[in-house]
Amino acid sequence: MAEIKPQNKGTRQLFKNPVLERLSRTHIAVPLVIFFSYAAGLLYWSVTHTSLSAGLTVALFFTGWLVFTWVEYQVHRHVFHMATYTRWREKLQYTMHGVHHEFPKDKDRLAMPPLLSVTIATILLLLLRLVLGDFVFAFLPGFLVGYASYLGVHYMVHVYQPPKNFLKALWINHGIHHYKNGEIVFGVSSPLWDYVYGTMKEKTK
């Protein structure tokens, strides 16, 4: 990742097939609407088809949100920034994330393609239903709202100027990751896990 120099303008074609190329791009509003709606639908199902109490629903919702911040960190650090010691891994890493580091202001590639992310969310629903039972209808909405919130934050830190309040830290943190050192500060929506795992700043020798 260190060898990729960020470009302030432009984009890059990833696929020769025009359909795949189009599917690799999305307006930020599309996944935000999809995942807030998906979460709302699951919560509605929880209220109308399960016996979960209001207190337990709220607790599971925020647990799901917290778990998402951990997953966000782990995927960003270990999948998006995977070691590229083979040509195949190098191409995969660039397609998933390297292109974003090269063209960080490309608005069409600030979110995972909705078709892929909806598929992943549905697989999660089916798998977690087996493990959590009815709890999934309160837990997964929190997870999905966490994902939608991450998308919103990620879009704003790349498109808008930082605000003059405590949220400015999110802009600064992600700016360090993109323009100073791509191997630190992996949290986008929250710096929590960077503090837990010691990646908030460069290690001193």
Question: What's the structural blueprint in terms of helices and strands?
Answer:
Layout lengths: L17 H6 L5 H21 L4 H27 L6 H16 L11 H19 L3 H24 L8 H12 L12 H6 L8
Helix pairs in contact: 2-6, 3-6, 5-6
Structure in words:
This protein is mainly alpha-helical and 205 residues long. The chain has eight helices and no strands. The model has no long low-confidence stretch (mean pLDDT 94).
Short account of what is shown:
By secondary structure, the chain is an all-alpha fold. The protein has eight helices and no strands.
Structural class: mainly alpha
The shape, in one word, is globular
- How many independent structural domains? 1
What is the CA-CA span between the terminal residues?
21 Å
Number of helices: 8
- Fraction of helical residues: 55-70%
Give the uncertain stretches in residue-range form: none
β-strand percent reads under 5%
Mean pLDDT: 94
> How much is the radius of gyration in Å?
18 Å
